[in-house]
Amino acid sequence: MTMDRRTLMKQIGGIGAATALAGCSVQENNDGGSDGGDGNSSDGSDGSSSSGSGGTATAWYSLSDSELAIREEVISTYNDETSNTIEGADISDLQQKTTSAIPAGEGPHIFDWAHDWAGNVYEQGFVVDKSDEVSIDLGQFTETAQDAIQYDGNLVGLPYGAETVTPIVNRDIVDSTPESVDEMLTLIEENHDPDNGQYGLAFPFADGYFTSAWLHAFGGYLYDNSADDKLGVNKSETVQGVEFMLENFVPYMPNDPTYEPQAAAFNEGNAAFTINGPWSLATLNDNDVNYEVFSFPEMSDGEPRPYTGIQMWYFASAMEDGGDDAAAAREFTEWFATNEDHITKLASDLGSIPVLSNLVGGDGLPETVQAYSQSAGQGTPMPSHPDMDGVWQPVNDALTRAFNGDSSAQEAMDAAAEQVRSNWED
Questions:
Q1: pLDDT tens digits for range 222-270
Q2: Three-class SS of residue 166?
C-alpha cells in the first residue's frame, strides 16, 4: 500500500521503555455504553469514558518493542477499567495480513497505521464509514488530522498523533545548531572527514519519504490529486530538488543510500547530521549520542516541506454490522484519541506529535516533540489517494540511480514517471 516505514521502526526500536500509565486511567460511569452524543458521554479529554458496551474487539498494529510495551499497557488499563475487552495483536506484516484477512472475514475490528492508507483501504472495502456513530467532536483535532481521517467524505478512523522527519545534529561534532540551510550545508562540508570515518551527513536518500522536504522545496511534488497534472515526479521543480541534494548532500554521505547504513553512521556517532523521525531516537539514546533535534531551518531560495503522516485507528469492515463488539472498538478508539494524559505520555515516551488542538505547540511537550511539531507544521500530508501506491517504488528506484550516478536527476525522474503511469494502467 505504501513505503513500509513501520518495518524499519520494528528493526530500530521506538523511544523509551514502558512505564506505568499514571494519569491515564479510564474512569467508569454508571450509565453504561455510549449515549449517542446527548451530552453525558465524555469526550475523553479528562481521561474518562463510559463503562463500555461490554463487547470484545480485536485491534491490530505493527510496533517497535518499546512502542509495543506501552500499547499493551494502555490496552490492559482500558480493559481493567471498562466492561469492554480489547484483544490486541502485533502483526509483523500488517499490510499483507490486512489485505488477506479482512476480505476473508478474519480481520480485526480496528487497525493502526498512518493516514496514507485511507484511500486504498476504503476503495477495497477494508474500512467503513462511522461518521454517523462517532460520539466525539472532531473539531478538537487539528484541521490536518480531521482531513486525514476522512476519504471522499467518509470517516474511516480516528487520529491520535502525527509524525514526520526533521534534521538532527550530533553536538559532539557540531557546536551550534544551524539557523539556515546555507549554514547547515557549510557545517556538513566542514565536518566531513571520510578518511577518519566521519561524514557530514547521513540520511536515507533512496526514499521519497525521507527526501520529501527537498523534493517539495522548490515547488515540486510527487502526486497531487487536486493538480491539473496529478503526477509531479519529473516536473522541473521536483527535479530541482533532486539536483539540490545531489550537489549539496551526496558528496558528504556514506556510499550506500538505503536506510540501514545511513542510519548506522549517525547512530554510531560517525556523522554530523541526519534527517530522521522520532522512531530513530531510541537507538541514539541507547548509544549515548549527544544529539539535538531541530526543525528545518530557513532556506534562501526555497522552503523545505517534509511529508507528514497522521497516526490513526482505522474502522475495519468487521465493524459494519454494528453490535457490542463494534461498539467496543469505537469506544476504545474514541478514548485512545482524546485522552489528554495518554496523548501527552505518547509524546513524552515515543515522540508522537499531538493532534488534539489544545495540546499542539504546548510548552509542556518535550523539546524534541516541539521540533518535530514545527517541522510537521512546515510539511505537507502524504497523499492518501490509491494512485500514490504506484508512485513510491519508482521514485525510490530513481533516487537510487541518481545517487549512484547511473542517471542524471532528470533522466531518473523521467523513467520514474513512465513507470508510475505504467503502474496506474496495470
A1: 999 999 999 999 999 999 999 999 999 999 999 999 999 999 999 999 9
A2: strand
CA 350 from centroid of its chain's CA atoms: 12
For 72, counting Cβ atoms within 10 Å of its Cβ (0-12 exposed, 13-18 middle, 19+ buried), the class is middle
Q: Are strands 157-164 and 307-315 parallel, antiparallel or unpaired?
A: antiparallel
DSSP classification of residue 140: G
Indicate the pairing of strand 166-170 with strand 271-276. antiparallel
For the chain, list the domains and their CATH numbers.
5-163+310-378 (3.40.190.10), 164-308+384-425 (3.40.190.10)
Q: Are 234 and 221 in contact (CB under 8 A)?
A: no
How far apart are the C-alpha atoms of 346 and 353, rounded to whole Å? 8
Q: Of 198, 215, 194, 197, nearest to 206 (Cα)?
A: 215
Amino acid identity of residue 264, one-letter, is A
Using an 8 Å Cβ cutoff, are 63 and 5 in contact? Answer: no
| Residues paired with residue 307 on neighbouring β-strands, in sequence order | 380
Alpha-helical regions (H) of 250-362: 259-267, 281-286, 324-338, 340-350
Query: Please, what's the b/e burial string for 158-179 (b: 16 or more CB within 10 A of its CB; e: otherwise)?
Result: bbbbbbbbbbbbbeebbeebbe
Q: Is there a contact between 110 and 88 (Cβ–Cβ < 8 Å)?
A: no
Strands 157-164 and 271-276: unpaired
Q: Which helix (H) or strand (E) holds 157?
A: strand 157-164
- pLDDT per position as a tens digit, 394-410: 999 999 999 999 999 99
Say how far apart CA 239 and CA 45 lie, in whole Å.
45
Distances (CA, A) of 228 to 74, 221, 280, 410: 45, 13, 37, 21
> For 116, which DSSP code?
G
DSSP H helical segments within 209-257, as ranges? 212-215, 236-248
SS3 assignment, position 278: helix
Q: Are strands 56-61 and 110-114 parallel, antiparallel or unpaired?
A: parallel
Global confidence as pTM:
0.82
- Which residue matches cell numbers 498494529? 61
Report which of 37, 38, 32 is spatially closest to residue 50, judged by C-alpha positions.
32
Place of cell 453490535: 323
